Amino acid sequence: MVYSVAIAGASGYAGGEVLRLLAGHPDFEVRTVTAHSNAGELLTTTQPHLRSYAGMVLQETTADVLRGHDVVFLALPHGKSGALADELGDGSLVVDCGADHRLTSEAAWQQFYRSDYHGSWPYGLPELVLADGGKQRQNLAGVNRIAVPGCNVTAVSLALAPGIQAGVIQPADLVTVLAVGPSGAGKTLRTDLLASELLGSAHAYGVGGVHRHVPEIIQNLTGAGGEGVSVSFTPVLVPMARGILATSTARLQPGVSAADVRSAWQLAYADEPFVQLLPEGSFPKVSDTIGANTALIGLAVDEAAERVVTVVALDNLVKGTAGAAIQSTNIALGLAEHTGLSPNGVAP
Ligand SMILES: NC(=O)C1=CN([C@@H]2O[C@H](COP(=O)(O)OP(=O)(O)OC[C@H]3O[C@@H](n4cnc5c(N)ncnc54)[C@H](OP(=O)(O)O)[C@@H]3O)[C@@H](O)[C@H]2O)C=CC1
Ligand SMILES: CC(=O)N[C@@H](CCC(=O)OP(=O)(O)O)C(=O)O
User: Fold this and answer.
1) How far is the centre of ligand 2, averaged over its atoms, from the C-alpha of 150 (Å)?
2) Cα Rg for the chain, rounded, in angstroms?
3) Which atom of ligand 2 is found nearest the CA of 237?
């Protein structure tokens, strides 16, 4: 069976990456693409690199246009998919790349997003370790709604959940500083994203516990078994088109050895082709993950500081968005989880 697909927000970065990956997927056929200000234009006007779709025209983003497809990917600005999704029937699998259905706490949603709450959907991070030692993929089989994680959240959650679940790091006093490229902010014109502001520089944003990914990180690490999770999260905008490099540190639990620490992460990811722990002494580069549906993890114990240090690299648009969306969709539909996805990146 070939599943019919519609993509809302197809003119944007996330929608474009879903399209790029779906072009290599044998089980999906993209029938409809929609946009907002670019509706009526050829898709290749805004996505000139997506030659497989030459001739497709961007339609208006409405429920009527999106309804009737087997799978609908929503890649819209925050706050724009909640009401739209409510109008799509249960017959379609709806996969939201935005934030509207990620948080299980309405209070946290209101505090960080300040817009109407539309409830939470099954969370699309298959490799996320859960408190019982299982993985989030067990909650995705057969579902008809998927909330794709925030890209920064994916990096931090994959970095820390194994240590929390295994009880080798303390869930309080986690610290992450994360370098991210401007594609994470979408195509929106912003003066702080101008090349002249970005090139040759780097700046922190969302500083002081106010970034909207903080509650999502806490939700995931609590789900991994952490009680009293607290995280100081600081993103830093750097001049690379794509990619995330997240450096996270956590206090060691008393009496835990460096070998205990490494085996916690090894156990979590030994069978995961898309989340790979690097050998001792190796740390990933963002450039190792560009175009790949892969998160690479480096791990060390800082004995003097009594902290575990993890370094995670991933492509925000692939493992951080479109790859996670397609991987989770494969699971929901009962397809082989890795269909249409590659652990290999492009280099140089
Ligand atoms: N970029 C990333 O790394 C990641 C993005 N995401 C999420 O994916 C979603 C899309 O992000 P991204 O692709 O980066 O953003 P872009 O700004 O690149 O694209 C936004 C898309 O939404 C459309 N759009 C804009 N305003 C409206 C509106 N009022 N109603 C309907 N459609 C609208 C745009 O259409 P048009 O161009 O025609 O105006 C465009 O297709 C966001 O929720 C984001 O959080 C998630 C993880 C990572
Ligand atoms: C550079 C930049 O602004 N990055 C974005 C990443 C957002 C993202 O991809 O996640 P969402 O789906 O939650 O938007 C940020 O830190 O907010």
Assistant:
1) 7
2) 19
3) 1
